[in-house]
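User: When convenient, might I ask for sequence and structure tokens for a protein?

AI:
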Amino acid sequence: MTMNFHSIFPDLGPWVKSLGNVFPASAIKAAPWVFPVIETAHLLGLATLGGCVIILNLRFMGAGLTNERAALIERNLRPWLWGAIGVLVVTGLLMSTVVAQRLYVRPAFLIKMLSLVSALILSLGVSGSLARNEGVLTQPAKIMAGIALAIWLLAITLFATSDGPAPGTLHLVCAGWLIVMAFGSKWTRILLGVCTVAMIIAAAVLTYFVYNPFEHYDLVNEIDRWLLRISAAVVVGFLGWEVAGPKPAPRLTPTLTRLVGLFTILVWVTVAASGRWIGLGGGAS
């Protein structure tokens, strides 16, 4: 069974349907240019927030602005982070009223909301606390991190079990791949590069030469799914090695701090990926 807001709250159907006919949706629909402007502001807010998240959490991972204190970076980014979150919430609510019926039945929207809750807990409750305490993860922050992890894992499970999850899953795999290739050790980058080339060649051979996608569409689609799952497992393995594996030089930051940085970046990528999946249909039939 596909999980979405309709399956969880079926009695809300009439209210959701009415949202498109009342203010502010009615005003937005009345002028064709309003929705694109709101969507543009939403994307700019997402880009600003992404920059804040990446800068601070790369610092936790021992990369980027390593010469600056984490507390100073967090303090300078805080107004931009809060401003971006405010823009995202306001514009997101406005856009949602216009397409409420579609979002109500799309698994991607449920995944985005779950990921967003997890991301906000991490950015506002965990990363901020970690920075202000100069890398010390307090007990309340650990509890919040555990809650955020559980919510994110639920979102990832829905990604993996819903129809048509490939776009969102691919975003996550690519994000993890880029992190490894940009900040991993020399041999990690070489080995991951070799694995990536091997996977691309295998995908090309299986889906273009062994099986014709026009004649065996369902089989080729399943092959692509398994190749994506294997790619995800490979990337997770290399990420785990880079975060927790032995290094010849002393670590700049403890393992738990690096995990928080990596975890926070990937959760926000999940928010963006599920948003893209909504635009591609969101798993709705």
